Amino acid sequence: xxxxxxxxxxxxxxxxxxxxxxxxxxxxxxxxxxxxxxxxxxxxxxxxxxxxxxxxxxxxxxxxxxxxxxxxxxxxxxxxxxxxxxxxxxxxxxxxxxxxxxxxxxxxxxxxxxxxxxxxxxxxxxxxxxxxxxxxxxxxxxxxxxxxxxxxxxxxxxxxxxxxxxxxxxxxxxxxxxxxxxxxxxxxxxxxxxxxxxxxxxxxxxxxxxxxxxxxxxxxxxxxxxxxxxxxxxxxxxxxxxxxxxxxxxxxxxxxxxxxxxxxxxxxxxxxxxxxxxxxxxxxxxxxxxxxxxxxxxxxxxxxxxxxxxxxxxxxxxxxxxxxxxxxxxxxxxxxxxxxxxxxxxxxxxxxxxxxxxxxxxxxxxxxxxxxxxxxxxxxxxxxxxxxxxxxxxxxxxxxxxxxxxxxxxxxxxxxxxxxxxxxxxxxxxxxxxxxxxxxxxxxxxxxxxxxxxxxxxxxxxxxxxxxxxxxxxxxxxxxxxxxxxxxxxxxxxxxxxxxxxxxxxxxxxxxxxxxxxxxxxxxxxxxxxxxxxxxxxxxxxxxxxxx
Amino acid sequence: xxxxxxxxxxxxxxxxxxxxxxxxxxxxxxxxxxxxxxxxxxxxxxxxxxxxxxxxxxxxxxxxxxxxxxxxxxxxxxxxxxxxxxxxxxxxxxxxxxxxxxxxxxxxxxxxxxxxxxxxxxxxxxxxxxxx
Lengths: 548, 132
Fold this sequence. Notes:
The complex is a heterodimer. Chain A is of the alpha/beta class. In chain A, strand 1 (75-80), helix 3 (85-97) and strand 2 form a beta-alpha-beta unit. Chain A has helices at 3-18, 48-51, 85-97, 109-112, 136-142, 161-174, 191-197, 204-221, 233-237, 242-262, 267-270, 284-305, 311-314, 334-348, 368-384, 398-421, 424-429, 432-449, 476-491, 494-510, 515-523, 528-539; strands spanning 75-80, 102-106, 153-156, 184-186, 225-226, 228-231, 274-280, 317-322, 353-355. Chain A has a 9-stranded parallel sheet. In chain A, helix 3 packs parallel to helix 5 (136-142), helix 12 (284-305) runs parallel beside helix 14 (334-348) and helix 20 (494-510) runs antiparallel to helix 21 (515-523). Chain A has 22 helices and 9 strands. Chain B is of the alpha/beta class. Chain B has one domain (6-131): Rossmann fold (3-Layer(aba) Sandwich). Chain B has 5 helices and 5 strands; from the N terminus they run βαβαβαβαβα. In chain B, strands 2-1-3-4-5 form a 5-stranded parallel sheet, with helices on both faces. In chain B, helix 1 (19-30) links the parallel strand 1 and strand 2 (34-37). In chain B, 55% of the residues are buried. The mean pLDDT of chain B is 93. Chain A binds chain B through residues 109-110, 112-113, 115, 121-125, 128-129, 193, 197-199, 237-239, 325, 327-330, 361-365, 438, 441-442, 445-446, 448-449, 455, 457-459, 467, 470, 472-473, 543-544, 546, 548, and chain B through 13-19, 22-23, 25-27, 29, 35, 37-41, 43, 64-67, 69-71, 94-98, 113-115, 117-119.
């Protein structure tokens, strides 16, 4: 008899008959059953050389760099943006002064949806959940006093990504920074918008075409730029499980790769600059397993399926953010503990960059104080805990390796399922993702409502919560922003504007790469709304079917 | 109540975060309430029109973008202008405490923030719609 089986029979069962297990679901947030103990018997087919390799080596399960955090700590990159470009610039500088090592820009909803601040749909939304950027003039204020050759900047922008990236690059040019020296990331992952966050403008096909324009143009012109951050974060925030987040994100990544190959771009010309972005949620080990599985699956897909030969093409480099959806409005200071544990999971999972949520984010945008506590949480993990002293310290844990295998297995099963539907676009159109995520999020909510799972301060240990000071966006924002926009429209060369917009239209109609036209439009001070209107006319707009 | 309660769940404005709206819509439906979900990107006028056409007892707005003061004001004014101010207005999202006070003063009967249970929302609706 196997020893684990004997232990269950002779030791565990007699004990639990006398003292029963707690009445609590022993399963991960992805519904993977968790056994009381794991042993080498759970890893019978496990070949560490093949499944793990060494840090910095295929299949990169243990991390993409050989030295990982012994060489360089992860980038501490806090997502920030609110109000006017002036206000966000001030927050950026405060974060850099506090020891942050990279910037990450949150845009307001009108910008994310390709509307200028003075568009009727923008009323009430300007500067509310991010900073408003309607033209190069706003971009220049946003990065005033910040050297784009020294600080890397990530921009969370999707449907209008090409235009916003062009504005950033035009800003860098006007500061005299060479594009060879400019590094950063645009999120530019439109597929997860259709699947989860819903900030799309155009239908899927032309939307993906715009993304592939950056795959083609980016490496040749801005070699240090990550022109995409394939994002599971929003899929998870929409209520998916960790397994779904992993599977849908990697499948999206594969779809972009296939589209780029179809355009005739060689895999090793673009793949090294594909980056990723995952959520780090509450289920500690499952999250660590997710990151490790993601690297292994991606490496295998890139090498074995797509024949990439450059090692950098095999590496899944990723940003991570703690789970906003896990934060509670009740007893908000408790969120600091949640964020710390999630951040630790991200680090043990080998993330390359990290944002930690502020404790007040279930109530409003973070105050400077709350954002600083979140950054300090990363610094405590980095400098005080010693977890980065050795690479992938949990490797070889029976439980973790079992979970990592399980994440991979379930992820590949989803790949087959989506293949059978006919790929990502078909799965979007048939509502497959909406259904899968809807089921998962509803199940999670029911478990909390029925107190099958406990959430501290929400359905257990409940008490009246004290009020905390919040970041408020003042009404001056709209006025300052509209004044600048009006000045831009008044003072720019309208002849150059017309020419730039006509060229953009032509590039879109002819199916050529749109990036050169976006660059000229940025320099000509065309507004974001004007540029997106040109494309709305050419491509049409997308509306999703309404389902609950 | 002889008639089944009807509730409109609406997503005003540009915000695409629909997890909360959909979870609430499903929970209300499972609790025997008839639910109409507007889908995304609704203007306040569209929401008011849908509320009247669908003859609902209550309208719930889900706003996570920070633009809640703007949209609740527009919807409440719109309902009043159409003589439909008997329709219960409630909502949820990322909404600071001090704004909840202002929204209640405006006539929004309840605001549910992250961590609220769907049962609370069901109970609230049964209570206030019965009173109406």
